[in-house]
Amino acid sequence: MKKYSAVIFDMDGTLLNTLEDLGDCMNRVLARAGYATHPIDDYRYFVGDGMANLVRRVLPEQWRDELMIRQTQTAMVEEYGRHWADKTDLYTGVSALLDELTKREIKKGILSNKPHDFTKVIAERYFKDWRFDPVFGARDGVPRKPDPAAALQICRHWGLEPSEVLYAGDTNTDMQTARQGGLFAVGVLWGFRSKEELIENGAQELIAVPQEMLPFFRDKRQPV
To answer: Which of these, 88, 91, 59, 87, lies nearest to 72 by C-alpha position?
Structure first.
């Protein structure tokens, strides 16, 4: 088994279970505007491709014009800015995984399609005990995932070839990002999407719990 020296994590659905806060906030925005709300579980397929796409997916089809999308997105940003930490927490086993990766001196980064400012604030709140460098959300001038541009930027920041980096995520978008960029694509089964979706979009390995990721990383403490 090849051993990797760095990992890029997706955030929502991979490190953090953010689904309820995202769904609750979006539903409150919809309800205030007089639109139908959605079951929280449906948000598994609404989120993952940026805030504008989330809004486009939840609005009634006849109201998906650009003005309404912008207005609803602004309201969602405000609502989520107040309530992003109400129910969000690390998935079971993630803290132990991050502890062990830190001991092994594995480089760690985060790449999310969530707006960059939100991504940074959330990472500072939940990952203050571990070093993630860099932490990237959706930024102006940089294509969002599944375009691999930001993932490749992280590889260059580390001075590593993409083939030396593992990418962990829970959606089709994540697997496409990894494969298009030449990173090793690991799909996590505790996140928002299905095993079938991950396989269909190029997952090279699937893991059911965070600890199953450890065999893919080198450990300087062990003899070669």
So the answer is: 59
Residues of the chain with pLDDT under 70: 221, 223-224
Q: What angle do CA 121, 122, 126 make, to 5 degrees?
A: 125
Distance (Å) of CA 223 to CA 5, 103, 216: 16, 15, 16
pTM listed for this prediction: 0.94
DSSP calls for 110-149: EEEEEEHHHHHHHHHHH-TTS--S-EEEE-TTSPPTTS-H
C-alpha 120/C-alpha 166 separation (Å) is 21
C-alpha span between 219 and 211 (Å, rounded): 14
pLDDT tens figures, 116-142: 999 999 999 999 999 999 999 999 999
The per-residue DSSP string of 97-112 comes to HHHHHHHTT-EEEEEE
Residue 44 belongs to domain spanning: 19-83
For 45, list phi and psi in degrees, rounded to 5.
-105, -5
Phi, psi of 17 (to 5 degrees): -90, 95
CATH of the domain at 147: 3.40.50.1000
In a domain, 1, yes or no: no
For residue 56, give the H/E element and its range.
Answer: helix 51-58
